[in-house]
TrEMBL record:
It comes from Candolleomyces aberdarensis. This is Cytochrome P450. InterPro entries: Cyt_P450, Cyt_P450_CS, Cyt_P450_E_grp-I, Cyt_P450_sf, Cytochrome_P450_fung. Coiled coil: none annotated. Pathway: Secondary metabolite biosynthesis. The lineage of its organism: Eukaryota, Fungi, Dikarya, Basidiomycota, Agaricomycotina.
Length: 476
């Protein structure tokens, strides 16, 4: 029954859009895109995963930097190249700073508190201002003691539990401690703190549901009115469970106990904190984990970094952020991790507010605009051997210093574009840098020698597979 309703809704939406489109009589063509079916467009061609690879293949086949897809009446524009992203999202940022409607996440799961998902307007502006002021490059220097403390606690936990083998919970604890102590002076005392657990569960829901096309209700919003008991409407039950977690995450008492700034109301503070926590935790955890994967594959990189640390940092001391200019190889490792397996391969979608024209094409108002960061960060004209983990690509062999004329700073794409660019990017860099430097200074990073026993009893070598859920980033 659910399927019949879905189908009728697709037909109705398609027919309506067809009529509107006929009336509009566009003068310019839409950008090239794969040929779709009548009414539903490319709905059935949309990849369920690794979308960025398919988008790049289509762009290459059609020889275009700007790709057009249409999914049951919704226009999607994919920007496959840095210049197109800069021309539109930065040079015309007043048109391209919206976010698409996300029915599942925002309207059913309660994520409308998060300015990162909000339309471009007053709510977004107010929260963004607070986030940006607190996290700008000069402001974050004051948080360095918090970063140092959280990093030292991480090292201690790892030293105490060397045989545990699962690094991810420790990294989560690290990012939670950092962000919460920076934002509100909240000290997390115990491991497995309930706030961290709750936030993870809520975040995980948003990650799953935030992937464009993950739930049909995003494509056909009217489905949100289908009652939860209705056959085929299991998404409503899922949304209800996730909604409870979201609410609990934003309402915890300890946030009220934090310091308050008179310029912002308690709601703005609370919602901004939750947005920063959700924007900053998984991304940072995942990038540290990626760095470690790269280092595991390249013991020579670890050795080189350790030698540099030994030549700069006094014996018995740990590197700190003041050492950053003298430890370019650590910077190169962090930059390579941000590029090699970037956390957000197609960024966070933007939305176009009014009709626009670009390179002779019409870009329709309301289109979802996706930036293919993966394609930009794996462009072999910019990064030789783009799928290899090679921090040396950023280093001038003569001087040993960073030289972005050899390979572009991945920061040009990995943190997004225009007015929506990641406000946490400076803090992310400092936090990644300090963690990686401290881990390399303290530990040898090597692959586990022992094999893994599968449930079948078979013994196999450890391998790595990346998933959407970072829990399973290190799998047998
Ligand atoms: C490796 C680390 C990180 C990466 C790769 C990353 C990447 C991104 C990207 C691609 C966007 C979307 C930009 C756009 O729409 O064009 C974004 C937005 C955002 N990020 Fe980050 N981020 C990271 C760390 C952080 C941290 C540490 C924080 C907070 C302390 C943070 C908070 C946010 C917020 C709140 C937004 C939404 C901004 C808005 O819509 O105005 N991120 N990030």
């Amino acid at each position: 029954m659910g399927t019949i309703i879905d189908f009728l809704a697709i037909l109705a939406t398609g027919a309506l859009l067809y009529t509107i489109n006929r009336r509009r009589k566009p003068s310019l063509p839409l950008p090239p895109g794969p040929k779709g079916l009548p009414l539903v467009g490319n709905l059935f061609q949309m990849p369920a995963e690794l979308q960025w690879i398919k988008y790049h293949e289509w762009s290459t086949e059609l020889n275009t930097d700007v790709l057009h897809l249409q999914v049951a009446g919704t226009d999607i524009i994919v920007l496959d190249n840095y210049n197109a992203a800069a021309d539109l999202l930065e040079a015309r940022s007043s048109l391209y700073s919206g976010r698409p409607r996300m029915v599942m996440v925002m309207e059913l799961m309660g994520w409308d508190f998060n300015f990162g998902f909000r339309y471009y307007g007053d709510y977004w502006r107010k929260h963004r201002r607070l986030a940006q002021t607190s996290l700008q490059a000069t402001a974050i220097k004051q948080y360095r003691p918090h970063l140092a403390q959280a990093t030292r606690k991480l090292l201690k936990r790892l030293l105490d539990e060397r045989d545990d083998g699962n690094l991810i919970p420790h990294l989560r604890q690290l990012t939670a401690e950092t962000i919460l102590s920076v934002a509100y002076g909240i000290e997390i005392q115990q491991e497995n703190d309930p706030y961290i657990k709750l936030s993870e569960a809520a975040n995980q829901g948003a990650i799953i549901a935030g992937v464009p096309g993950a739930f049909l209700v995003d494509t056909i919003p009217i489905l949100k009115y289908v009652p939860a008991w209705f056959p085929g409407a299991s998404f409503k039950q899922k949304a209800r469970e996730w909604h409870k977690m979201t609410r609990a995450m934003t309402n915890l008492q300890k946030i009220e106990a934090g310091e308050k700034d008179d310029a912002f109301t308690e709601d703005v503070l609370r919602n901004t904190l939750a947005a920063l926590y959700s924007g900053g935790s998984d991304t940072t955890v995942s990038t540290i984990a990626t760095s470690i994967l790269g280092l595991l594959e390249h013991p020579e990189v670890v050795k080189k970094a350790q030698a540099q640390i030994d030549s700069v940092v006094k014996p018995g001391h740990l590197p700190d952020l003041d050492d950053e200019p003298s430890l370019p190889y650590i910077t190169a490792i962090v930059k390579e991790a941000l590029r090699w397996r970037e956390v957000t391969p197609f960024g966070v979608p933007h939305a176009l507010s009014t009709d626009d024209e670009y390179k002779g094409y019409r870009l329709p108002a309301g289109a979802i605009v996706i930036v293919n960061e993966w394609a930009m960060l794996h462009d072999e004209n910019v990064y030789a051997d783009p799928f290899e983990f090679k921090p040396d690509r950023f280093i001038d062999p003569e001087t040993g210093k960073i030289d972005y004329s050899r390979a572009r700073d991945p920061g040009h794409a990995c943190f997004g574009f225009g007015r929506r660019i990641c406000p946490g990017r400076f803090m992310a860099f400092e936090s990644l840098w300090l963690t990686i430097a401290s881990l390399i200074a303290t530990f040898d990073i090597e692959k586990a020698k022992e094999k893994v026993t599968l449930p079948s009893g078979e013994e196999v070598e450890r391998t790595v597979e990346l998933t959407h859920e970072y829990d399973s980033a290190f799998v047998a």
